[in-house]
Amino acid sequence: MIYVSDPTCEYEQHPVVPTGGAPSPRFSWKIVSDEPGLLQRTYRIQTAEDELFSRIVWDSGDTVSEESQFLPCWCGTLLPGRRYFWRVRVTASSAGRGKPGWSGPGLKKAGWKEAGWKEAGWKEDLESGWSEAGWFYTSPQTGSWSAPFITRPTEYTEEGRPICLRYEFFLDEIPETAWISSTALGLYELRLNGRRVGDDLLRPGWTSYQKRLAYQTYVVENLLDKGSNVISATLSDGWYVGDLTWLAIRGIYGKQPAFSMQLHGIDRNGQTLMLSTGSAGWKTAYGPLLSAQLYHGELYDARIDISGWDLPAYDDSGWVPAAAARYNGDAIVPQDGPSVVRQERLPVQKQMVSPRGEQILDFGQNLTGWVAFRVKGKAGERITLKHAEILDREGNFYTENMRSARNTITYILKGDPGNPEADGDYEYFEPNFSFQGFRYVMIDDYPAAGQILPEDFTAQVIHSDMARTLEFSCSHDLLNSLQHNILWGWKGNSVDVPTDCPQRDERLGWTGDAQIFIGTAASLMDVNAFFRKWLRDLAAEQRADGGVPFVIPDVLTPAARLRETGMLESTHSSTGWGDAAVVCPWTLYAAYGDRQLLAEQYPTMKSWVGYITERAPAGIWEEGFHFADWVALDAEEGSYFGATPAALAATAYYAYSVQLTGRAAAVLEKPDEAEQYFRLHRSISTAFRKRFFREDGRLHTPTQTGYVLALVLELFPDGARDVSADELVRLIRENGGHITTGFLGTPWICRALSENGYRDEAFKLLLQEDFPSWLFQVKMGATTVWEHWDGMKADGSLWSADMNSFNHYAYGAVGEWMFKEIGGLSPGPAKISSDFRIEQAPGWQFADYKVEPGGGITHSSIAYESRYGRHELNWRMDGGRVTAEITIPPNTTGVIKVPLSARSVSIVPELSLTAEGSYQAAAAGSGTYRVSFGV
């Protein structure tokens, strides 16, 4: 049995792809089969104008290739505003069930030596049928954006109040196909004849507005009516106009929100319909939403409801004509990241009254989103919701760590218009143009005669729409809770951009946090398109000299021009932060194997390395402002900066970025550039050793983070690996077996230990339950990862309110180590040949399956849904024996590893084991394997 499943185009099921000289859309698929050792031999793709494939526009023919990801559609020029169908079928070869060994071109390409393989009989030319038809749309928009932007007239100057826009038009007949492409400077909600267009939220998202503004495209023929129609939009300030940063600066990008759209239709006779915000007759007015700000919440007065304004025949005689706004259409691009959507709905877990008498609802989970509610009361009565992450140690509502962000939703009831003294029917409300980071909600106002009931409130969890890819659990309940917290930290901080926190007056795309966590993020979810969009903004914001802003989109540079930042000496190019320009593209390539994205970001990688090289002529980077090991526990009293010297951290990351850029050059078949970067890397490493290490192999300034960086990046002196590892362990033990690392040391500290002979010490560090540790937070009731190890102390007292987020994903980067060392599952690394060319591409076509218990954990279950299929590893230790079941998906290869010390190893079906470092390893093709050994 063999068939093709999950056909996708550019990461999506049914994407809208750009036209007019854009790269060809790329196809991917999975193969499902019960045949073991299966590798694809050929594929054949067809693209057609119809679902029956009677009007084929491209046929690849049978193409010999194992590749099933990101195959381009070479079908010539795609016509705009069309739907194209595509399908694929494959042939494959199988090693056959029950053979004594396994071999194949996939393993040969992976670099495994042929010596020692047992010959296996191959079953040739297994053939699938055609896959289910996928389809993609081509955008009707070609060339530069031509639809003008419209907004309220200049006399409408009320800050923070959303506006309503409407346009009424007539259709003699409904088009056969119709599209709306739309965008805004600010946030918009679009309706057609009173029905919401799309289910995405906070559109068009947040980009580097002066350089990139995304537009969305929707298929809308099913929303159009014969006769009168109305397009309507509600427009709010969003990121474009509203308050941003802790400086509370409005209008960093512009002073007024504006909206732009065009409707494109084709009738059965091929006649086209086109109207846009340039069409005469657009009108605007204020509605019942009196205020909407991302940081501060919303104020809605239902008494001034304008029901029916988004339908035909509404009397808009009191509305005023919309005014034109200016924006450069050349900066407008198709949406290139996933939309923000509602993901989950959580009920109230507990209702309580605080010692201060506050009415509080506990949703049981620190989340990002908002609360939808229903309420009944008299006209003019109100309900006010305030949001918080925690309660203080007395159990009172705590909002000081929100700083200036008000996070308040107020709804004024409409009541019964016919009898203002009587209660009306239930009224429903939920925000649309703000979001909150919270677990607790305080009901500050409520109708006098009403009763607060938990069932009237539901938390709506929102984040960018990314598929979950990881399942992980183990025998240690606190680690399972930590995994939960890591996942929810990512959910809460992936609302269109990778933010530091979702609750206070910040919520910025800090580059340091992103590069620290991206490896773990790529395990948890399919983040390729999410980060692709963000990296394009990073490339757009990169300075001419190669410097990289601290946050993307860069609001700190313009904010600093308007006002003193009060905290930062600079707004760009810190070590560990600017390195996101290199680390993030490479990590995505390692996770997904998308060479095109790596090629797109390669100039950005080179520019960042060039920026440092100009400032580190002797290989040591000492110049400029650096966060370095931010908020480490070895910082001086009152300081955020850890004890690890900034120059040490900066030079270590310089070496890291140079090395990764060299690897990218090899992947992109630029061997001369790869050799140049590897040569530079060697010279930096030499300079690092001379500057920061003593003759006895110890650091001049011994810190946990210093040794972590030296070990993981292999910057220790020749022969001093063991000395560095021993010193790291000594420092940990001197601190009572606890961590002192900050942002740069924490993600790698367990890896530094386990890769250098101290795997047991790594587990001890991970499993610490008292302060400071990951599990201390869990035992304190955390449901996400904190910004500070001591955000809340053991006695319930709190770290400074100035900077104390309880949803900060950076320290959750330990998840990547957990999945590899406890779960045992990881993608195979890229391998570079001696002539600086790529030998083995990553992206889960090749994977490691390591069965090695540790830390007293007795069982683990992990599964990763890659683009090739589902990888699984489940192991259990009972007494002195370990058993495991491993599943490798079709068209991938893997290596099964057990400790070198393992006794009486059995693998069914049988595989040949060879010594590989500290492991016994066996090459394996797709299928299910059962492993057993004694410890």
Number of β-strand runs: 50
Ends apart, CA distance between termini? 38 Å
What share of the residues lie within helices? 10-25%
Radius of gyration: 29 Å
Low-confidence stretches: 97-121
For the largest beta-sheet, the strand count, sense and barrel status come to: 10 strands, mixed
Secondary structure tally, helices: 16
β-strand percent reads: 25-35%
Q: Structural class of the helix and strand makeup?
A: alpha+beta
**If you average the pLDDT, what whole number results?**
93
Query: How would the global form be characterised?
Result: globular
Give structural notes.
This protein has 935 residues and is an alpha+beta fold. It contains 16 helices and 50 strands. The strands form eleven sheets. Strands 21, 22, 26, 27, 28, 29, 32, 33, 34 and 35 form a ten-stranded mixed sheet that branches. A hairpin with a 5-residue loop joins strand 40 and strand 41. Helix 4 packs parallel to helix 7, helix 5 packs antiparallel against helix 7 and helix 8 packs antiparallel against helix 9. About 3% of the residues have low confidence.
